[in-house]
TrEMBL record:
Pfam families: Sulfotransfer_1. It comes from Buddleja alternifolia. One of its GO terms (molecular function) is sulfotransferase activity. Its EC number is 2.8.2.-. SUPFAM superfamilies: P-loop containing nucleoside triphosphate hydrolases (SSF52540). This is Sulfotransferase. Residues 1-20 are annotated as: Disordered.
Length: 300
Protein backbone atom coordinates (compact mmCIF):
# COMPACT_ATOMS: atom_id res chain seq x y z
CA UNK A 1 0.00 0.00 0.00
CA UNK A 2 1.49 3.26 -1.07
CA UNK A 3 0.99 5.79 1.67
CA UNK A 4 2.56 8.97 0.38
CA UNK A 5 1.82 10.31 -2.95
CA UNK A 6 4.89 10.95 -4.96
CA UNK A 7 3.52 8.91 -7.80
CA UNK A 8 0.45 10.06 -9.68
CA UNK A 9 -2.42 8.13 -11.15
CA UNK A 10 -1.49 7.31 -14.73
CA UNK A 11 -3.29 9.26 -17.42
CA UNK A 12 -4.85 5.98 -18.59
CA UNK A 13 -6.94 6.05 -15.41
CA UNK A 14 -8.46 9.39 -16.34
CA UNK A 15 -11.24 8.75 -18.79
CA UNK A 16 -11.24 11.68 -21.23
CA UNK A 17 -7.81 12.68 -22.55
CA UNK A 18 -9.06 16.17 -23.54
CA UNK A 19 -10.51 16.77 -20.17
CA UNK A 20 -9.21 19.97 -18.50
CA UNK A 21 -9.33 18.35 -15.09
CA UNK A 22 -6.52 16.05 -16.17
CA UNK A 23 -4.03 18.88 -16.37
CA UNK A 24 -4.93 20.03 -12.89
CA UNK A 25 -4.79 16.45 -11.62
CA UNK A 26 -1.17 16.15 -12.65
CA UNK A 27 -0.26 19.06 -10.39
CA UNK A 28 -1.99 17.67 -7.29
CA UNK A 29 -0.98 15.13 -4.68
CA UNK A 30 -2.51 11.72 -5.24
CA UNK A 31 -2.52 8.44 -3.37
CA UNK A 32 -4.25 5.12 -3.04
CA UNK A 33 -6.76 5.45 -0.26
CA UNK A 34 -7.92 2.28 1.48
CA UNK A 35 -6.33 0.22 -1.31
CA UNK A 36 -9.35 0.67 -3.49
CA UNK A 37 -8.68 3.50 -5.89
CA UNK A 38 -6.76 6.70 -6.48
CA UNK A 39 -7.60 9.84 -4.59
CA UNK A 40 -6.51 13.39 -5.19
CA UNK A 41 -5.97 16.06 -2.54
CA UNK A 42 -7.83 19.18 -3.57
CA UNK A 43 -8.25 22.20 -1.29
CA UNK A 44 -7.28 20.04 1.69
CA UNK A 45 -9.64 17.10 1.03
CA UNK A 46 -9.24 13.65 -0.53
CA UNK A 47 -11.53 13.16 -3.52
CA UNK A 48 -11.79 10.07 -5.73
CA UNK A 49 -9.86 10.72 -8.96
CA UNK A 50 -12.66 9.11 -10.97
CA UNK A 51 -15.07 11.80 -9.63
CA UNK A 52 -12.69 14.74 -9.96
CA UNK A 53 -13.97 15.87 -13.33
CA UNK A 54 -17.57 15.78 -12.08
CA UNK A 55 -16.60 17.71 -8.96
CA UNK A 56 -14.94 20.43 -11.04
CA UNK A 57 -17.97 20.52 -13.36
CA UNK A 58 -20.25 20.91 -10.35
CA UNK A 59 -18.17 23.88 -9.21
CA UNK A 60 -18.09 25.39 -12.66
CA UNK A 61 -21.64 24.93 -13.86
CA UNK A 62 -24.06 24.48 -10.97
CA UNK A 63 -26.25 27.56 -10.54
CA UNK A 64 -28.07 27.44 -7.25
CA UNK A 65 -31.60 28.73 -6.87
CA UNK A 66 -32.90 30.16 -3.62
CA UNK A 67 -35.34 27.24 -3.40
CA UNK A 68 -32.68 24.54 -3.78
CA UNK A 69 -31.97 22.03 -1.05
CA UNK A 70 -28.49 20.53 -0.79
CA UNK A 71 -27.92 17.49 1.40
CA UNK A 72 -24.27 17.23 2.40
CA UNK A 73 -22.65 14.33 4.20
CA UNK A 74 -19.52 12.30 4.69
CA UNK A 75 -20.18 8.87 3.16
CA UNK A 76 -22.01 6.48 5.51
CA UNK A 77 -23.28 9.19 7.84
CA UNK A 78 -26.98 8.83 7.07
CA UNK A 79 -27.19 10.16 3.50
CA UNK A 80 -29.79 7.58 2.40
CA UNK A 81 -32.03 8.28 5.37
CA UNK A 82 -31.72 12.06 5.04
CA UNK A 83 -32.56 11.87 1.32
CA UNK A 84 -35.72 9.86 2.00
CA UNK A 85 -36.83 12.11 4.86
CA UNK A 86 -36.23 15.35 2.98
CA UNK A 87 -37.95 14.10 -0.15
CA UNK A 88 -41.01 12.95 1.83
CA UNK A 89 -41.20 16.16 3.86
CA UNK A 90 -41.12 18.58 0.93
CA UNK A 91 -43.28 16.42 -1.36
CA UNK A 92 -45.93 15.38 1.14
CA UNK A 93 -48.58 17.38 -0.70
CA UNK A 94 -47.46 16.09 -4.10
CA UNK A 95 -47.59 12.31 -3.54
CA UNK A 96 -49.87 10.25 -1.38
CA UNK A 97 -47.82 7.77 0.55
CA UNK A 98 -48.92 4.80 -1.59
CA UNK A 99 -47.60 6.53 -4.71
CA UNK A 100 -44.36 7.83 -3.28
CA UNK A 101 -41.54 7.41 -5.86
CA UNK A 102 -39.36 5.97 -3.09
CA UNK A 103 -41.46 2.82 -3.25
CA UNK A 104 -39.96 1.98 -6.63
CA UNK A 105 -36.71 3.97 -6.81
CA UNK A 106 -33.83 4.17 -4.36
CA UNK A 107 -33.24 7.40 -2.41
CA UNK A 108 -30.04 7.86 -4.46
CA UNK A 109 -32.02 7.90 -7.70
CA UNK A 110 -34.75 10.17 -6.38
CA UNK A 111 -32.21 12.58 -4.88
CA UNK A 112 -29.11 12.44 -7.09
CA UNK A 113 -25.54 13.20 -6.06
CA UNK A 114 -23.76 16.00 -7.87
CA UNK A 115 -20.56 14.01 -8.23
CA UNK A 116 -21.82 10.44 -8.80
CA UNK A 117 -24.85 11.08 -11.00
CA UNK A 118 -25.68 14.61 -12.08
CA UNK A 119 -22.30 15.93 -13.28
CA UNK A 120 -20.80 12.48 -13.90
CA UNK A 121 -23.35 11.68 -16.60
CA UNK A 122 -23.04 15.06 -18.37
CA UNK A 123 -20.54 17.86 -17.98
CA UNK A 124 -23.17 20.60 -17.93
CA UNK A 125 -26.64 19.08 -17.63
CA UNK A 126 -29.79 21.15 -17.99
CA UNK A 127 -31.24 21.24 -14.49
CA UNK A 128 -33.65 24.11 -15.12
CA UNK A 129 -36.59 21.81 -15.86
CA UNK A 130 -36.48 20.15 -12.44
CA UNK A 131 -39.43 21.40 -10.37
CA UNK A 132 -38.67 23.39 -7.23
CA UNK A 133 -37.57 22.66 -4.69
CA UNK A 134 -34.74 20.80 -6.39
CA UNK A 135 -32.95 18.43 -4.02
CA UNK A 136 -29.35 17.39 -4.64
CA UNK A 137 -26.81 15.68 -2.48
CA UNK A 138 -23.06 15.66 -2.21
CA UNK A 139 -20.08 14.46 -0.21
CA UNK A 140 -18.10 17.56 -1.25
CA UNK A 141 -16.61 19.55 1.65
CA UNK A 142 -18.06 23.00 2.31
CA UNK A 143 -15.01 24.89 0.99
CA UNK A 144 -15.21 23.04 -2.34
CA UNK A 145 -18.94 23.58 -2.93
CA UNK A 146 -19.80 25.73 -5.95
CA UNK A 147 -19.69 29.43 -5.09
CA UNK A 148 -23.27 29.77 -6.25
CA UNK A 149 -24.40 27.52 -3.39
CA UNK A 150 -22.37 29.32 -0.77
CA UNK A 151 -23.45 32.72 -2.04
CA UNK A 152 -27.12 31.94 -2.61
CA UNK A 153 -29.87 31.74 -0.07
CA UNK A 154 -30.46 28.05 -0.69
CA UNK A 155 -30.70 25.56 2.17
CA UNK A 156 -27.97 23.09 3.08
CA UNK A 157 -28.59 20.21 5.45
CA UNK A 158 -25.52 18.46 6.79
CA UNK A 159 -25.67 15.21 8.70
CA UNK A 160 -22.73 13.65 10.49
CA UNK A 161 -22.24 10.51 12.52
CA UNK A 162 -19.97 9.43 15.33
CA UNK A 163 -16.67 8.93 13.41
CA UNK A 164 -16.14 5.45 14.92
CA UNK A 165 -19.47 4.24 13.57
CA UNK A 166 -18.91 6.05 10.30
CA UNK A 167 -15.51 4.41 9.93
CA UNK A 168 -16.85 0.88 10.51
CA UNK A 169 -19.76 1.46 8.17
CA UNK A 170 -17.52 2.90 5.46
CA UNK A 171 -14.78 0.30 5.76
CA UNK A 172 -17.29 -2.56 5.39
CA UNK A 173 -18.97 -0.72 2.50
CA UNK A 174 -15.64 -0.28 0.69
CA UNK A 175 -14.89 -3.99 1.06
CA UNK A 176 -18.20 -4.73 -0.58
CA UNK A 177 -17.66 -2.23 -3.41
CA UNK A 178 -14.37 -3.77 -4.55
CA UNK A 179 -13.64 -0.79 -6.82
CA UNK A 180 -10.01 -1.73 -7.32
CA UNK A 181 -10.39 -5.17 -8.88
CA UNK A 182 -6.86 -6.23 -7.98
CA UNK A 183 -6.94 -4.60 -4.57
CA UNK A 184 -6.64 -6.79 -1.54
CA UNK A 185 -9.05 -5.99 1.27
CA UNK A 186 -7.37 -3.51 3.58
CA UNK A 187 -6.98 -4.71 7.16
CA UNK A 188 -9.12 -2.80 9.61
CA UNK A 189 -6.17 -1.54 11.68
CA UNK A 190 -4.47 -0.13 8.61
CA UNK A 191 -7.68 1.49 7.38
CA UNK A 192 -8.28 2.93 10.84
CA UNK A 193 -4.78 4.44 11.01
CA UNK A 194 -5.35 6.13 7.66
CA UNK A 195 -8.77 7.32 8.80
CA UNK A 196 -7.25 8.89 11.93
CA UNK A 197 -4.73 10.71 9.73
CA UNK A 198 -7.53 12.02 7.52
CA UNK A 199 -6.51 9.84 4.56
CA UNK A 200 -9.88 8.44 3.62
CA UNK A 201 -12.56 9.20 1.02
CA UNK A 202 -13.69 12.84 1.31
CA UNK A 203 -11.60 13.20 4.49
CA UNK A 204 -10.30 14.44 6.79
CA UNK A 205 -13.58 13.85 8.59
CA UNK A 206 -12.92 16.50 11.27
CA UNK A 207 -12.27 19.21 8.69
CA UNK A 208 -15.35 18.10 6.73
CA UNK A 209 -17.55 18.42 9.82
CA UNK A 210 -15.94 21.65 10.96
CA UNK A 211 -16.45 23.27 7.56
CA UNK A 212 -20.19 22.70 7.75
CA UNK A 213 -20.34 23.41 11.49
CA UNK A 214 -18.74 26.83 10.98
CA UNK A 215 -21.05 27.49 8.05
CA UNK A 216 -23.98 26.66 10.33
CA UNK A 217 -22.68 29.04 13.01
CA UNK A 218 -22.22 31.80 10.42
CA UNK A 219 -25.56 31.28 8.77
CA UNK A 220 -27.96 29.07 10.78
CA UNK A 221 -30.87 30.03 8.53
CA UNK A 222 -29.03 28.51 5.53
CA UNK A 223 -27.17 25.56 7.05
CA UNK A 224 -28.77 22.99 9.33
CA UNK A 225 -26.32 20.74 11.19
CA UNK A 226 -27.72 17.34 12.18
CA UNK A 227 -26.35 14.29 13.93
CA UNK A 228 -27.37 10.74 12.96
CA UNK A 229 -27.55 9.84 16.64
CA UNK A 230 -30.08 12.62 17.32
CA UNK A 231 -32.31 11.33 14.53
CA UNK A 232 -32.15 7.86 16.02
CA UNK A 233 -33.01 9.24 19.45
CA UNK A 234 -35.96 11.40 18.45
CA UNK A 235 -37.03 11.14 14.83
CA UNK A 236 -40.26 13.09 15.38
CA UNK A 237 -38.39 16.12 16.66
CA UNK A 238 -35.81 15.78 13.86
CA UNK A 239 -38.48 15.65 11.15
CA UNK A 240 -40.13 18.76 12.59
CA UNK A 241 -36.76 20.50 12.70
CA UNK A 242 -35.96 19.66 9.08
CA UNK A 243 -39.43 20.71 7.93
CA UNK A 244 -39.26 24.06 9.73
CA UNK A 245 -35.75 24.74 8.49
CA UNK A 246 -36.83 24.09 4.89
CA UNK A 247 -39.92 26.28 5.20
CA UNK A 248 -42.33 23.31 5.09
CA UNK A 249 -43.56 23.22 8.70
CA UNK A 250 -46.24 20.75 9.77
CA UNK A 251 -49.56 22.40 10.60
CA UNK A 252 -51.33 21.45 13.80
CA UNK A 253 -53.88 19.55 11.75
CA UNK A 254 -51.16 17.56 10.01
CA UNK A 255 -49.58 16.79 13.35
CA UNK A 256 -52.91 15.61 14.77
CA UNK A 257 -53.44 13.42 11.71
CA UNK A 258 -50.06 11.75 12.26
CA UNK A 259 -48.26 13.12 9.18
CA UNK A 260 -44.91 13.14 10.99
CA UNK A 261 -45.28 9.55 12.20
CA UNK A 262 -46.26 8.47 8.70
CA UNK A 263 -43.04 9.92 7.24
CA UNK A 264 -40.97 8.53 10.09
CA UNK A 265 -42.36 5.01 9.52
CA UNK A 266 -42.06 5.27 5.74
CA UNK A 267 -38.38 6.32 5.94
CA UNK A 268 -37.44 3.93 8.72
CA UNK A 269 -34.64 1.44 8.19
CA UNK A 270 -37.14 -1.37 8.71
CA UNK A 271 -39.43 -0.13 5.93
CA UNK A 272 -36.96 1.14 3.32
CA UNK A 273 -34.60 -1.82 3.64
CA UNK A 274 -37.39 -4.30 2.91
CA UNK A 275 -38.59 -2.64 -0.31
CA UNK A 276 -37.78 -4.71 -3.39
CA UNK A 277 -36.01 -1.77 -5.03
CA UNK A 278 -33.61 -1.48 -2.10
CA UNK A 279 -33.08 -5.22 -1.74
CA UNK A 280 -32.16 -5.76 -5.41
CA UNK A 281 -30.27 -3.98 -8.14
CA UNK A 282 -27.26 -1.77 -7.79
CA UNK A 283 -26.25 1.85 -7.68
CA UNK A 284 -24.48 3.01 -10.87
CA UNK A 285 -23.27 -0.55 -11.46
CA UNK A 286 -20.88 -0.14 -8.54
CA UNK A 287 -22.57 -1.25 -5.39
CA UNK A 288 -25.62 -3.24 -4.41
CA UNK A 289 -28.56 -1.10 -3.31
CA UNK A 290 -28.84 -3.31 -0.26
CA UNK A 291 -25.36 -2.16 0.86
CA UNK A 292 -26.86 1.18 1.84
CA UNK A 293 -28.86 -0.64 4.50
CA UNK A 294 -26.63 -2.63 6.83
CA UNK A 295 -27.62 -2.31 10.51
CA UNK A 296 -28.74 1.27 10.99
CA UNK A 297 -27.69 1.27 14.64
CA UNK A 298 -25.69 3.58 16.86
CA UNK A 299 -22.54 2.26 18.57
CA UNK A 300 -21.64 -0.57 16.22
P1 LIG B 1 -24.51 1.10 9.11
O1 LIG B 1 -23.51 0.62 8.13
O2 LIG B 1 -23.88 1.52 10.41
O3 LIG B 1 -25.65 0.17 9.32
P2 LIG B 1 -25.18 6.47 3.95
O4 LIG B 1 -26.62 6.51 3.66
O5 LIG B 1 -24.57 7.81 4.24
O6 LIG B 1 -24.44 5.66 2.96
O7 LIG B 1 -25.05 5.72 5.36
C1 LIG B 1 -25.37 4.36 5.47
C2 LIG B 1 -25.61 4.08 6.93
O8 LIG B 1 -26.90 4.55 7.29
C3 LIG B 1 -25.59 2.59 7.20
O9 LIG B 1 -25.16 2.46 8.55
C4 LIG B 1 -27.06 2.25 7.01
O10 LIG B 1 -27.43 1.04 7.62
C5 LIG B 1 -27.73 3.44 7.67
N1 LIG B 1 -29.09 3.69 7.18
C6 LIG B 1 -29.55 3.59 5.90
N2 LIG B 1 -30.84 3.87 5.85
C7 LIG B 1 -31.24 4.14 7.11
C8 LIG B 1 -32.50 4.48 7.69
N3 LIG B 1 -33.60 4.59 6.97
N4 LIG B 1 -32.52 4.70 9.02
C9 LIG B 1 -31.42 4.59 9.78
N5 LIG B 1 -30.20 4.26 9.29
C10 LIG B 1 -30.11 4.03 7.97
Amino acid sequence: MEKKADSKCSSAQVQDPKDESQELLQTLEQQLVWNSSWFVKYDGFWFPVRLFKAILSTRKYFKAKETDIILSTMPKSGTTWLKALTFCIVNRDVYIIDENPLLTATPHTVVPFFEYNTYAEQENPDLEHIPSPRIFSTHISFNVLPNSIRESNCRIIYICKNPLDQFISHWLFMLEMKIGKDAKPLAMDEAFDMFCQGNHPFGPFWAHMLGYWNAHLNSPQNVLFLKYEDLKEDITLSIKKIAEFLGFPFSLDEQKQGAIQQISRFCSFEHLSTLEVNKNGNFLGMVKNSSFFRKGEVGD
